[in-house]
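Q: I'm writing up a methods section and want to include an example of the input and output format. Could you take the sequence below and give the corresponding predicted structure tokens, formatted cleanly so I can copy it straight into the document?
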Amino acid sequence: MSSDLIENVIAGDIDQLYKMNPVIQESTPTTVFTYPVAVIRGFGSSTSAVDGMKMSSYTYGTSTEEIERLEIMNGLSGFMYGAGNVGGITNYVLKRPTYKRLTNLTLGNYGGEQYYAHIDLGDKIDEKGKFAYRLNAAYQDGETSKDDQNVEKKLISGALDWNITDNFQLQLEAAHKFYRIDRPDNRFYTQGISGWPKAFDNKKTYSQDYTYNQTKTDRVGLNSTWDINDIFTLRTAYMYKKDNREFIINYPIYTPNGWTMYDPSKTSPYDTISHSVYTYLDSKFDTGTISHKLTFGISGETYKEEKYVNTWIEDSSYITPNGLTLDEFMNLPSPNFSSDYGSKYKANETTNTNIIIGDDITFNDNWSALVGFNYTTVKNKVFNTSGTRTSKYDESELTPTLSLIYKPFEDLTTYASYIEGLERGGTVPDDANLYNNPGEILDPYVSKQYEVGAKYAISENLLLNSSLFRIEKANSYDETTSNGKITRNQDGLQIHQGLELTATGKITDNLTIMAGGTLMDLEVDKVTNPNLKGKKPTGVATKMAKLYAEYNLPFLSGLTLTGGAYYTGGKYQDSLNKNKIDGYTIYDAGLRYKTKLDKFPTTFIVNATNITGEDYWATTNQLGIPRNIAFSMKMEF
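A: Here is the clean output for your methods example:
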């Protein structure tokens, strides 16, 4: 997804891009946790990558204003990224310096009263272009299209190129971001009712006025590229990211007698710290008539959380009421939260290292292969407040990646592949209000993917993709116990088999589309609990279809109509498949007009999303995004 597309949809956060992408089935709205979670091939992504470096701290702090493009790599990603996402991974490619003058100013509104300003600057610093820079700064503040919800964002992001020689380049980037949501969106729970309720009014947050979610992020990265000679290239990179988070989020409970909630609590400020690094040696050579592109290298990441002893702060005198009307629930007074956080300690630490070797082999014009191996090691430690290690695991696995590629003619590529990937076991959220086993680390496992597919270029500007896949992953599920809390278990296999189709590019000179869909057969197998065998995994739709289109009006130069339709089928909310959540279709519409004001190129954009005002469940316990109208004006000086 290109920078033009990112700008054209006025994506104040990543939600709209995820909604449009034809291989992402659904995502958690950013207004819940301040970061999105994409579902690809039925699996939620637990990590993402920034400039090709995996970050287990999600996408905290990454903003659309600093992104050149968004890459969605669907399918098991164990070869390049080791323990990671079985369904796929998202990669955020940051904007790089320009070597000619760039001065863009954008003013607009993300919906409601969220007015914003964004400036994008770039140029070479010296005459010869040894140095070049890029600077992005943005600010937004105001109420969203949801009742009484406010978002404030401050971003400054910069990048510098140093071309030491014609063959050796150093790149530096750094960013700081502040992001705060007052009255964030909520996760919902039920008690005493059969089935799952229809979607509530998604213009409301179902949060009290004292709730908030805040993240401060600092990031710095350094990478180099050295073209040693005609055969070898050495690539190295390092990235550091620190997120400081705090929030008060109340989880509402819907009952036959009215509304209540889990005991309210505040999390004391805590840090998530990631270090990511890689070194790859690329080489190109021939052995007889066979060509090779061989990559050998090592990559790694460490991720840790530093918390205060008093992580979850409660008001012991606060009595949680029940049987409330919605207005009574929304206007509950704030508990008296203590500011005594105690001392700080390291709560957990995870390390993932990967030694990889991969060869892109070309036998002739018709046949080629990708062969790779990754030796992955995952280490995880959990500590209590006194610093004593309470649990750990240390697992290593050699996992293969094998693909055979056949091109019967120039415009058609077919392939068959088999991939394995070591996955670290999930960590149960450290929330004793919700979970019986908070903070527990589940066992690691090896996931497997089988896939066949074809890519056909109808023309230079239109590409069709198709794939049949089968993914096998360890099954985890939540079980509500008699005390009303949840136990997260891991047992059996989660099997996703599906057909994926996409079409991207120009149908005509004036009509551009990005379309696709997925059909899946889902099953839980090899599980010891007989009640779960043959059930469908929770939160996964078997059907999904999307269409985004742009049409340039031939009779009015510069004016483009845009629109989209996005369908997601029904899914089960519980592991026993008793609660079915309805599917939904939402529609967008907009227009873009390119002209000149004086001598300066100027683009006006208006986008309306969810134009029918559909109330829907975006996930199994989170509401979707309401009707919203955004607009902007971009001037290029």
